[in-house]
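User: Please predict structures.

Assistant: First:
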Amino acid sequence: MTARETVVPVLLEKVYKLIQDKLDLAHRPLVTQLAQHMFSNVSQDDLIQRNESDLYGAVVSLWHHINEKKADDISVRVFNPTVSRQGWQSTHTIVEIVVPDSPFLVDSVKMALTRLDLSSHLMLHNPTQILRSDKGDVVGVSANEGVFQSLFHIEVDRLSSKAEMTQLKEELVAIFRDTGLVVNDWMKMVERLQTVTDQVEAQKASIPVDEKRFEETVAFLRWLGEHNFTFMGYKEYDLVSVDGDTVLKPTQEQGLGLFANSNRVRDVKLSEFSDSARLEAKKPYVLILTKGNTASRIHRPAYTDYIGIKKFDENGKVIGEHRFTGLYTSAVYNHTVETIPLVREKVERILEASGYREGSYSYKALHNILENYPRDELLQAREEELLEVGTGVVQMQDRDLLRLFVRKDPFGRFFSCMVYVTKDRYNTELRRQTQRILKQYFGCEQEVEFTTYFSESPLARTHYIVRVDNNNMDVDVKTIEQNLMEVSSTWDDRLSESIIANFGESKGLPLSKEYMRAFPRSYKEDMMPGSAVADIERLEALSEENKLGMLFYRPQEEASDSKAVRLKLFYQSDEPIHLSDVMPMLENLGLRVIGESPYEVRKTNGVTYWILDFSMLHKSEETIDLREARDLFQQAFAAIWAGELESDGFNRLVLGAGLSGREISILRAYARYMRQVGFPFSQQYIEDTLSHYPELAKGLVKLFAKRFDPKHKGSAKGQQDLINTITEQLDHVESLDDDRIIRRYMEMISATLRTNYYQVDENKQAKPWLALKMKPSEIPDIPAPVPVFEIFVYAPDIEGVHLRGGKVARGGLRWSDRQEDFRTEILGLVKAQQVKNTVIVPVGAKGGFVCKRQHTMTGRDEIFAEGQRCYKRFIRALLDVSDNIIEGEVIPPKNVVRHDEDDPYLVVAADKGTATFSDLANSVSAEYNFWLGDAFASGGSNGYDHKAMGITAKGGWESVKRHFREMGIDCQTTDFTAIGVGDMAGDVFGNGMLLSKHIRLQAAFNHMHIFIDPNPESASSWEERNRLFNLPRSSWEDYNKELISKGGGVFSRRSKSIALTPEIQKMLGTKKASLAPNDLIKMILSMKVDLLWNGGIGTYVKSSNETHTDVGDRANDVLRIDGRDLRAKVVGEGGNLGMTQLGRIEYALAGGRVNTDFVDNVGGVDCSDNEVNIKIFLNGLVSNGDLTIKQRNQVLESMEDEVGEIVLDDAYCQAESISVTEHQGVGLVKEQIRFIHTMEKAGYLDRGLEYIPDDETLLEREKQGNALTRPELSVLIAYAKMVLKEDLVCDEIANDEFHAQQLIQYFPTELRRNYVQHMDNHPLRAEIIATALANQMVNEMGCNFVTRLQEETGADIVDIANAYTASREIYGFGDVLKRIRALDNVASSEAQYDLIFHVRRAMRRISRWLLRNRSGKQSVTALVELYRDDVNAITKVLDETLVAAEVEEHNSVAKVWVEQGVEEELANSVARLSSLYSALDISTVARETGKTVEQASKLYFNLGDRLSLHWFLKQINSQAVDNNWQALARAAFREDLDWQQRQLTGQVLTCGCAADLDVIKALDDWMESNAVSLHRWESILNEFKVGSVHEFAKFSVALRELMLLNLNCMSKD
């Protein structure tokens, strides 16, 4: 294989080029040769960062140097080249050497540099053949002829001082001189050794040495001469006596090698030798082998080897020595011992002496030890010493021990120490420490030298040479060994011992192996092995359940009152905990972190743990007793870490007040509640107050415990005592704010009725959420409206609130995103719910919760799952403090002290964000075995699916149809234009936009898209909408673009701007070419269109007097419009809060048709309530065993359509009621004001809150011909129902058999058919009856019916309800109303409302008559039985009994209605109600006089006509009233007149006694006989016939006359 041609580096090429260019012709080739020769072995790395000019300079400099010196000169130059002087430069000091070639030069130069502590940065050296001319000029360079010279170019660390440079130069020159001496005398010395060996051999007989050893000695000497020793010096000495002392004296003959220099040779007195050396000198051995006491400066930096060959006289006495110094060559170190004379014999003897059997393990081991033993030692040491070492090491048996063997140098110059230790244990640190210990022990001045040897053996051997002036001392090897063991015993060893001591051997050994090298160096430096064992216990205790271990402690070094504390955290993970995660937690616990040390612990099985050690100062004023605080702190921190406790400033109370984390969460929960109810102090301020007054904080927690801990049974006295104590302490609180905060805490705790704080789960663990049931009316300054009950739920991951308007209340649970003020949002909704729930049994409730960790999540699914988890937690918390009903008995929750009565009714419903969560709620209900079962949350998988039923949209559509009917349009058969908010995937929008096939949807938008179809085709667009509705998760994007009319499209709301086509411009009535999406929506909202259908979320219309901030829906601020700008003719509010109430009113005053959201979308809540009440009923049957769950579900499902109809009927009637009232217009304003006042006085209605205008505004409106708008009427009707419903929940109503029919009518047909006998057991029987009755009364009679009758008659509500029900039944008004409603789209709506108003008025008058003329408390049934037959009889003969003129009058009224599309019979019967009202009077007269009702009837009407009483009644009715008193007076006149007419009729009937009385004749007779009195009456009537405006006083006088007439007539009888 041929070596690759080396490529010449470019840099060198440049150097050669410079030589060519710059030098004269003669020198060029020579200098080039020199350069090539010098650079031939240079490495590429050495050329980096150098430039050609400096390299060129270096070569030229060397060239001159060679030229200036002779071939045998030793020349060394040391200089710092500069450009100015040398023409080149270097950052280093340059050493140039030109010397005759010789061995050892390079080694020796390198050693010299090392000795002087200089680094070499570049060393170019090569023996170069240089040919010189006779004159001495160089004529050839490495051209295979000439003398070899060694050339060096060396760059060393820069030397700045002259002295240093001189020192270096002199050192090098001295070395070269020595080298010269050694090299020149080398052969002579080899020869001298031979001569001496021959002499010794010749003296064999006289030398007292045993033969074998002698031969070995000679063989050794001969072996040395065979290139196994590098000779450096020789000198012969004689042993002579001088002054009684024996002296070793150099002979006259000049020494060789280094000893040729006589300065290196001197006399030595034997008395100056140490004892051992003297002994050694006098021993009868031929050789003395030892080490010299100086290190060689040549070849190898080792101490020179000393070989002394004694001179003997004939008697075998020592008379001198031949001394050789030098260095053994590598052969001594590398050849096996068997090849080295003297040594092999020594080894044999040692093996023999060991007593080991040849071939045994120990024999081989010992042989191996000696074979690898340092050769210098083998040569120098005594056999006994070697045997001791060898057997000692064999006995270690490769165990983890440490052994030390010490040998003294016989000449007292050093100790040779052998340290054996396992390889694992050997490290630089141990070596350093050993050096230190040896140096210290032996009192050595120099550094201790060492050589370390590793082989396959598990042991490492280090040979230390400790140089001393005199080694004559006793050495206690065991003490040193002990110290070394202590040093070598690593931290891990001590850990192992501690682990085994702590855990016992069986458990400890495996553990100690696992943790053998687990801990990092930093940990070992900081921690004792003992504390590591404690840490290991904690690490081993970590598991899936226990992910974080910890230790809160105070270092031993700190005093017990010190502020310094530490915390260790233990956990398993590949990544360390980030400091930023832990710091805030610790700061919040009142600790200042001043340092942190993370330690990664990696077990041998690869498991990684982390230990974090925090050093901290605590901030509390008190000193902390760590024994007490530790557990509290650790539990709190673990809980914070696990997310079970929040990390905030309240946690300072753990150390500051000694409260547990859970106790603190009570205070935190109340603080959060304060935030929600708008208490003015921030949480941080509250935290500071409680930290500042830890005793008060403790007191508050004690007060909570006194009130709610079951063991105190809620003792009132204990609470009062505590409140007094806290109040006393408050006297020492300086700040008024702090005082207010503590007092507010006390008030809130006292206003709390129940809590689940003391409940535990099945694992006996405290519940991770806190529920507080409050009575908000007892909390001062709480914002209105104030609910009756409230449950506040607090947990680190969720907060929520559930507000109820009464004991039986329902409403949705909303997943709110308003972390800071969700209660405000819920409060607004509960108000809306209150008015919405008037249609259903329960009053309003609303709940809302926030997921506090939602912001940390990303994906939609992850957030959804978190919402579900929080929702379930929220519901569990609500059920924790709710009573249950088991087998008809109320069972309070476990471990809950109740400060209120039984309260078992809790239902929830879906709302924003929780639409699909009903099954979750019901699963929790089942988990708690709650009495409502799956009636707890309506709409679950076994409930009515609102979206599938489309019930909310259908309910709203009833209002839309009515608005259109009132405009004379049937929107189910006539095309109309519409715009909408929402998309077809939504329940309300999707269902709503399919409810008529004649919708022409021109535009719609949701949060993503804007859909525009300027000229839609109703049929095809309906089909496409239907397709989208059935397409899962569809959006406007999916709408088939081909079906959109020209110019339309679907636009993204993310676009910067949207170009408007001519068609869109025309539709919007704008000339703008493009608009930003939000501006486009704004224009869509304000375009001319028939219907705006809101099925979305958000508030889009406000009044011009409201700001966007007032609205509280920031997302839609940019596109909201004012009510006056809304130009749609009709608004259907399927969604909640689509308009503000003031926005609706403004729109209605401008002629728009709108109800309110709670009227339009009542369908959903109504349907849910029906479902709940049906389920409560059916669940009762299931638990009695009358039904199985499966049958129950089938029954439920089968009734879905009918429930839908019931709900729509409710929606229909409610909207109708508003319309009838609105239709009456201005005439009712004063009554309505009266009603508003009544409701205000009773504390039900807050005018400002409900945006009902003040009296001035209403009277102003009345003058302008405007009455209350529909949105305002909607509120009044809701309040009327709300109050009435509450008042009707009483036994008198519930137990009335007639009202009880309401209960049966409430349920669908199937239940009425099969289970009617069980209905009376319904837990909400009274509430259902009251609700049905209240709704019916208000819908049919208007909002102020009850209050007006109360004022007019003073009757109580039960009597009024009975009178109303009786009048409805007696006259069959229910049927009449049904027939009127059947005229939708047949008759005009005005005619329908007229008819209903007539019915309403008749019912009111009849009810009043019944209240005025009743005898005692009569049941409805009794009243009906008393009057119904008579009324029916009178109705049949009415036209015959009436005077012709009156019949004519009735017919003309009816005719107007018939022309408007009313059936004739219906029109006639309603027209005659004003006369039929008298039927009750007639019936009474007939009964009193014993005549038939037909007779009485005929007489009554004729008498009224003859005496002009009917005319007079008309005068009364047409009398205008200005105030309530006048209204009452007018009613009184009417009653008086009726009564007088009844009396007079009675009188006339009594006159004629015959049964077949001719009433007309009787009347004639009577009038004749009372002519005088009648004349007086007629003259008064004539007064009335003049003019049409009369004073009230005139009526009083006239009625007085009539009474006198009555009395006169009676007295005549």
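Second:
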Amino acid sequence: MTGKLTTSQQKGVDITDRDLCVVAGPGSGKTRVLVERFANLVITRKASINEILTLTFTEKAANEMKIRAAGLFEQKGMEQERQEIEFAYLSTIHSFCARLLRENAIEAGIDPQFRVMDELEAGRLKEQALESTLKERTDEKTLDTFLNGIFWKQTDAKKSRLKSFRENLIQLYEKIRSACVPIAETVNVDDLSPGISISSNRIEELIKEIKDIYSDSKLTPKTREKVEHVLERWNASNMQKEIEKLYGKRDKSPQKDEQVLALLNCVKNIQSSINLQVSKDVKTSLAALRDELKVLIGLLVEDYSTNIKMMIRDFLMNFDIAYSERKKVEGLIDFTDLEVKTIELLENREYIANEIKRKFKYILVDEFQDISGLQMKIMDLIRSKDNLFIVGDAKQSIYGFRNADVEIFQDIQNDIDPGSLISLNENFRSRPQILDFINHIFNELWPSNSTSQGTSPPYEGEERGDVFNSSKDNTQQLKPGAKFSNKAFPSIEIIVVEGNDKTEARKWESMEIAKRIKEIVDNGEIKITNKRERERRISYRDFAILFRSTTDIKLYEHSLSHLDIPYYVVSGRGFYNTTEITDLINLLKVIESPLDEINLAAVLKSPFVGIDDDALFRLADHAHSSNEKKLLYQSLDDVGSIKEIEEYSRDRIVQFTQFLNEVQDIKPRTSLWKLISFVLKKTEFQSKMLLFSNGKKKYANLRKLVELCKIQEEFEPLVLRDFIEIVDGYKFREIRESEAPVETEEDDVVKMITTHSAKGLEFPVVIVADTNRDNSRPSDYFVYSKNFGISFKILDPSTNEAEVPLSYERINDEITEKELQESKRLLFVAMTRAQEHLILSGGINKSRARGDSDKGNWHNYISASLNLDPGPEDNREIITLGEDSSHSIEVKHSRVKEENKPSAQNGPEEKTGGKSIKLLTRHRKAIATCNKIKTPLPSKEIVETGENILSRITHNVEIDNSHYVYSVTELLKFYFCPQLYYLNSILGIQGINEKSMTDPHYVEDEDESRLNDDEIPGHELGNVVHRVFNKYDFPEDNLNAYIKKELSTYDPDTSQKSIDHVAKWVNTFYNSNVGKEVLSSKRYKREKSFIFNCRHNLIRGQIDLFYFGEDGLLKIIDYKANNITVEEIPEKVKLYQLQMQLYARALEIIYGKTVDETILYFLVPDESVVIDTSEEACRELDSTLDNFFTAHKDGNFKKMSGCKCEWCEYNTIC
């Protein structure tokens, strides 16, 4: 923005006799106001440069302000001030704190030469301090006991229980430090007796209410039965007396914890008996009773958890001492220390705080909406009366993960004197149509009675942007301040792309984005029309693709590369997770520890060696099947004797072995960065990267890793093990390290950037991508808030189940609500970056169901505000918003449906030679995992598409499946009909009928339209049964509760009928002769996945159960949940016989032991059938396998005919 200041901007510059709060919307020129105010204070001699403290959010913003201020002083001929600006107190708050601590190091009790640790170094020091604290508290024998007492499970299956504990505890420690609360005060020890008594009395009232309703004869028999069940549990519980006994007196008995647990399980027993599938007369009361019981359960768990929380608190206090001592010895502090120690200095040395107040006549703070509680405390300690000038916008507060507290700014805005509040709501960045569209969206998201977003509109009659009173109305509109030339077509586009799942949808969305960018650039559709600039066509440099998360950014990079669109990833997080860096680190791990088979296998398949899956399998098979049971590394020396491996692969392995020996020889004699350079040069790995797509970036990334290693070694000598640990630490902590730049932001490239990184920036064309991403993340194990203190789930030792304290629920509710509000603000920031054109795109799962719960999904927000119909009938190309035609907004709406997508051969796939057939649809992922593809009813388009594809494909094409692992399901499809298998699994053509009797776990289902609301369809019950058999140990008293838990994944309000249904199946099986034999076996495996080599091909599958009987016989069981009669069993046996014979063949090859019995167990009608797996009986299996592999070799998949074709999902195109 240039030219004269607006009235409100000028007031922000001129008013200096009071505190001022400037509410500055996006593009409103707030930075200019800050700079002009700073310069004006100096020019008018109200303050010298060193008497003004200016705090910004980033060093980049601070430097930009210095440059602008220097320019203003130069215009005024103030050369001395222009030179002094470089030494002004104009920096981030962390830099100010560091400067203050260095100037007062002795008073602060720290080393004057202290060094601020980076994120990783601080993490390593914390882990060392934590390790020493653990050793002081426990030894190897008592460590598990300690963890059992405070930490009921590991939170990440990929990490050990102890590692999970360490990471979670450090997270909790940082949360408490950021809250500036002494660790000793983090456990809430309030007496819970009053709350428990109130809840208990409320429950008693509800029970009386239910009894009164029960006495009414109008209840249906089913409802009466369910109410009786609840009342029986209540009467048997004696709950009121137990509560009075425990909480009626103040003294605490040593056995109280055990008594609380017993009471807790009693209350849970009552709650579990409540079924809300009842008549309306009693439903409300039962629901209220269930909710109140939940409150009581939370309070009891809260009470029980107090002692455990104190253990955690005491441990944290010891850890804090150990960590502080280590920092002090080494002269180190971390970023949180900068703020905490500054607060301690100012509070303990009041004369220093007073000196700062005298020194700085004015304090200017930018981006105040993102200030934290610690930073606000510093502000209060250094500010004087009427010298604080703050600029911010609550709508743009998006750094909650850095402890930003938007409520601080909102409270100041709402409480400040009306004459001290200035609004800058004229936007000098975006086209009016874009601003109107944003106003429309956020009028829906932030209704006028919301108090969570901050800014308020001026009262009627006030000048736009004038000083005004802040009411609780928070719907301030963005108003255009810049002038643009007319534009013939809409400035807003919405692109919606359908897919079978979110991953697939994102892939197709990324292709549409790339295609749209190329269209705009090639056709010159959009021009720069802001009258402040010269009119020109849009080029690549004008595009920015904004992401809320970089998790799937590689999909979008791939699509841009496919269309040869140059791009630049700004401040990405992906460096340490790129393929080339991962490959190099895997090789370094092998050099450090050659016996690690997983890393060695990865290296052998990587470009470092480049052998195929078959060679790797042969190598591993040789190692593991030899008499000596060698390791994979040891078998490298024997590769010359493994004739099944092709000569080319053998040569590469020999060269790799020689290379490893050479590296081991020089490793002790050279620095680490030189060792890595030698590895890259010797293997020519960098040069090989240039042959790949985006090769220049891969090459640069490898050089960057060497430089990072070199820089690290300048601080301290590094051994290879330490460097590997450092890089792994960066990966797990998602340290922000951008990939090595090949192009720069100034080049003609599309910029790919996170919305957080784009804050404060603007771009002619903004594409907000991946809008259909939920704001969902797993809850932290340990949570903390000032209101509730520390909280976490507790293990109930009597049931071995997790119990949730009331405080844990309350804190998570707070966190969820804050994250949802921030998600809306993040969308606002993303959309307000656009100057000329705004594109919102999202890939949606076409079969998704939009629920009532708010998950922070931007696509749902936008669709709801525009009344977009998720159904296929919404085909509007132009959406018009606004009733007044003179002020209406036109939005271009593109919806890419299944039938409109290009075939995969035109998609972003790597260009490959040869004759191998590529899958022609978007279902590769589903096919690879053998998931059934959900399809709509037959349509003319589907039939025509299928016929069109088939008419262009000849069967005599060689198909390359040398690297493929076949599944048992695929083999059964082939057995049923080779043509069906060919269409489904090789071509990936979409079928029409959802049923598939070739699926081993297929369950014939009843008509779902006839089910009651609380009943579960048969196929879901079948899935639940398999999960129960996999995890449940019979006999256990809590079978029904366990089944209910599993069923709740399908429907939270599961009927007792469904629970009883599954329980009957489970009990029936375990009470049968087969089930009793399983229970008596000491060696058994459930849901065991396998891969075995069959005729030089790999086949995978999963066996429900196999076990060794008391007589040592090996037996297989496969459960079938088909709802059939005894008469139908022979037909089903015929269908499943091949599957069972293949399972037996797999176990015999894997274990080298004959399978003695293979059993199909039909849960309905409780019948078991032994399948013949003799050599004679398996002839059909052998014949099928021969035909299967031959068909893949010659590409000839024959069509079967007969009655099977009537139900086949491909019968209209076959």
